Amino acid sequence: MYGWIWRHLPGNAWVKALISLVLALAIVFLLFQYVFPWAEPLLPFNDVTVDQGMGAAQQMGAVR
Amino acid sequence: MTATGQDADACRVEDTEASEASSSTPPPPPPRKARRRIAAVVSVIGELLITAGVVMGLFVAYSLWWTNVLADRAAHHQGDRVRQHWAKAKSPEQKELDTKDGIGFLHVPAMKNGEVLVKKGTSSKVLNDGVAGYYTDPVKSALPQDKTGNFTLAAHRDGHGAKFHNIDKLKKGDAVVYESQDTWYVYKVFATLPETSKYDVGVLEKTPKESGKRKPGRYITLTTCTPVYTSTYRYIVWGELVRTEKVDADRTPPKELR
Q1: Is A48's CB within 8 Å of B55's CB?
Q2: B47, part of any domain
Q3: Cα separation of B76 and A21, whole Å?
Q4: ipTM summary value
Q5: Less CB within 10 Å around the terminal CB: N or C of chain A?
Q6: CATH number, position B146
Q7: pLDDT for residue A55
Q8: A contacts of B211 (beta carbons < 8 Å)
Q9: The total number of structural domains that make up chain B
């Protein structure tokens, strides 16, 4: 997969390395900016409040 | 390693005379193309697994570091706004301030985390800005100036400012000071509950019976999640108001904070 991408990048090894770095940073940015903030409330690591068990499933979404 | 190498060599030789070779050797080795395809699939799966590992590592960095950076920035910004607000509205008639930016600051010397802005509500949107929120639901919090009641707060243990990270450092008798525009409210911790169910809303009651209190009083309750890095249980700390102090012109902190 990565080999395939490497072979399809234009330029010599230096240019390829630079493009790869930019691509990697862009992916990290997308993850931090959009993917992780979306995923975080779906994961059970950050609930700090107490709330009623009844309807917890709906409530949790708002209280997390 | 050597065996596969030999196999590959054998394959290459057999390619030219495939029909004869396959009849002489009982288990025919898989053709080179198929084998190469399998190797490609295996390597893609491997690369995907490595990628998944890296992404999870990045998520840990995001949760425990980057959200703190963002939250501290937001909390400072909002805290500054509240202080500016207070500085402008000097007259006591104007002390009814809007609760949008926050109502005051919590100082807990034992937690060694400076001042924590207190805002209304405990939704993730509020708490993710690195503040402590007072409950509006399921049990409505009292405010410090109320005659009796329980001032109930929640904040993150990890990430998003991690304002209550050191809640386990609080012991009986430790000071919890709440600063409003014109008053310092000095509370003393009288009970802690290191582990309780996340559905234990009783801890938020006006007179929290689980703390051992039976009579109405002016209480403060801090809630966060425990153990650290998880949300399995809740950690509760209760305090009781011991005195209030008027804020002077220099906002000299009470002796507990000096």
Answers
A1: no
A2: no
A3: 33
A4: 0.78
A5: N
A6: 2.40.260.10
A7: 38
A8: none
A9: 1
Whether B161 contacts B130, CB under 8 Å:
yes
pLDDT digits (tens, 9 = 90+) for B16-65: 444 444 455 566 666 788 899 999 999 999 999 999 999 999 999 999 99
Quote the domain boundaries for residue A37. 2-63
**Cβ separation of A48 and B138 shorter than 8 Å?**
no
pLDDT band at A1 (very low <50, low <70, confident <90, very high): confident
- Tell which residue, B194, B66, B170, has the closest CA to residue A36: B66
Q: How many structural domains are present in chain A?
A: 1
Intervals of chain B under pLDDT 50: 1-22
B3 within domain boundaries: no
- For an interface test with B, the pick among A43, A49, A54, A59 (most B C-beta atoms closer than 10 Å) comes out as A49
CB contact under 8 A, A36 and B229: no
Euclidean distance between the first and final Cα of chain B, in Å? 70
Residues 6+ apart with CB under 8 A from B32: B8, B11, B12, B15
Pairing of strands B132-134, B149-154: antiparallel
Helix axes B32-61, B2-16, angle to 10 degrees: 140
> Is the pTM of the predicted complex or chain greater than 0.80?
no
Q: Does B235 touch chain A (CB under 8 A)?
A: no
User: Quick check: B161 and B72 in contact, CB under 8 A?
Assistant: yes
CB contact under 8 A, B47 and A2: yes
Shortest CA gap B250–chain A (Å): 35
Question: Domain range spanning residue B121?
Answer: 62-257
- B81, part of any domain: yes
Tens digit of each residue's pLDDT (9 = 90 or more) over A6-54: 999 999 999 999 999 999 999 999 999 999 999 988 887 777 778 765 4
Q: Tell me, yes or no, if B158 comes closer than 8 A to chain A by beta carbon.
A: yes
